[in-house]
Design brief:
Structural class: alpha/beta
Helix content: 25-40%
Number of strands: 18
CATH superfamily of the largest domain: tm_1862 like domain
Distance between the termini: 29 Å
CATH architecture of the largest domain: Alpha-Beta Horseshoe
Mean pLDDT: 89
Number of domains: 3
Low-confidence stretches: none
């Protein structure tokens, strides 16, 4: 299985693996050894499409040598090209959208493996069994789909309208995860903080209330969520960060642009001023909160003055990190047909300036951790030095440090250095209890 894209796709892939294991499948070490080759795809950016196609062509070559190999394509890309997937890629055996993952099992257990496609929303992948990548970390799919109409985004057409899962179902799932060793859970939704508004009145709870119910589950030490929408980031959720012991001191608040004019063309439904008001409220309630964001550079019609407004906002806010992207037209979106497309070389030059500023301000922000002792959840060995450990703070900062411990352990680390990306340090002599 190869997964592209966001955390929701990672969650869906874990559910696919759990479902396949229940059917008797076991993971293959290499693609060439597999009887079943699966791709869970993303269609948010053109680059993801290009990467996936290269992998799919490799699978096709393997199928020519071993014709009984089954090739399956799921996820948002499959949904977005549902009317042409088998015509363009005749070697694909099964294709399915994000709401039809369970149909993969029906296909694999059917008597005839003729090419089939499944693209209607029928169920949540969160209802399927999971094979987690890390025993101590779990995903919780609280909703799927999106009711927003951002002019650049393909998600509403690939994942559909927003649908929330029943709160009692979610709490039951969290309790099962906690009993199975999960201590850190990440809540997932395309617009996670609008959770619950579509539920029947007698079952409806707000996102902040859901957070409180999860915080009360024994064994859950950390709660994260992604991604909220600034228009729905309300004071009750921000207060929950200050009041709930398990809710981490980190908020990912997508900006996309610092120009109100660009935000209007994006159909983001908030202004620069409204966004800064949300940031001010977060900093008032949570002065130490880690704040990260998403920014798109070169949206159609973005002028140099528009881009300068993004730079001044980034400088004013001082993010702890940012995911920055060149605008890429996506099929079937309003923005793809807009005039005044920004030349590629202009987008690249602006991105370089933005990344430089983000890194400088993130480095400044990170210095507040130097000299402090922070709780770190160990994830494994450091990627740059296997002799050291890597973990993550409640602020979502990666820490490379000296010490002993196992993945899933919570330890105290004395922070001695900081860059825009990572912290460094050594484990305290008195470590926190293991997770």
């Amino acid at each position: 299985m190869t997964t592209f894209g966001c955390q929701m796709n990672e969650h869906d892939s874990e559910r696919m693996k759990g479902m396949l294991e229940s059917l008797g499948y076991v993971p293959a070490e290499r693609r060439a050894e597999a009887d079943l080759i699966l791709f869970n795809t993303c269609s948010i950016r053109e680059r993801a499409d290009d990467r996936f196609i290269a992998h799919l062509q490799e699978a096709a070559a393997l199928k020519r040598r071993a014709p009984d190999t089954v090739i399956g394509v799921g996820g948002c890309w499959a949904q977005s090209v549902k009317h042409e997937v088998f015509e363009r890629f005749p070697y694909v055996d099964v294709a399915f959208g994000p709401g039809q993952v369970h149909k993969l099992a029906e296909f694999l257990t059917s008597e005839s493996l003729s090419a089939q496609g499944f693209f209607e929303f029928e169920s949540f992948t969160g209802d399927l069994p999971a094979r987690r990548a890390r025993r101590h970390q779990g995903w919780l799919q609280v909703s799927v789909g999106c009711n927003c109409v951002c002019s650049y985004c393909i998600v509403p057409s690939t994942r559909g309208r927003e649908v929330s899962r029943d709160p009692d179902t979610l709490i039951a799932e969290i309790r099962r995860q906690a009993a199975d060793g999960v201590s850190e859970v990440t809540l997932l939704g395309q617009n996670v903080n609008s959770y619950g508004r579509d539920l029947p009145a007698d079952r409806r709870v707000s996102f902040s209330e859901l957070l409180r119910r999860i915080d009360a589950v024994e064994g859950i030490r950390r709660i994260r969520y992604t991604s909220p929408h600034p228009k729905d980031m309300r004071e009750d959720v921000i207060r929950a960060h200050a009041e709930l012991p398990a809710l981490c001191e980190h908020i990912h608040l997508p900006l996309q642009s610092g120009s109100s004019a660009v935000l209007k063309r994006m159909r983001r439904t908030y202004t620069r001023e409204r966004y800064l008001d949300r940031v001010a409220l977060i900093r008032e309630q949570l002065p130490d909160c880690g704040l990260t964001t998403d920014i798109i550079v070169g949206f159609p019609g973005e002028t140099e003055a528009d881009f300068e407004q993004t730079l001044t906002l980034v400088d004013e806010v001082g993010y702890d990190g940012a995911f920055t992207f060149l605008y890429s037209p996506r099929r079937d979106t309003e923005a793809a047909a807009l005039e005044d497309q920004v030349p590629h070389e202009v987008k690249v030059e602006r991105l370089e300036r933005l990344v430089g500023l983000v890194q400088r301000r993130a480095s400044d922000r990170a210095q507040r951790f130097v000299g402090r002792s922070l709780e770190v959840l160990i994830e494994g060995p450091s990627r740059t030095d296997p002799a050291r450990l890597r973990g993550r703070t409640r602020h979502n900062k990666v820490v490379n440090f000296d010490g002993l411990g196992e993945p899933g352990d919570y330890v105290q680390v004395e922070i001695s250095g900081a860059t825009s990306q990572t912290l460094t340090g050594a484990m305290s002599l008195v470590a926190a209890a293991a997770g």
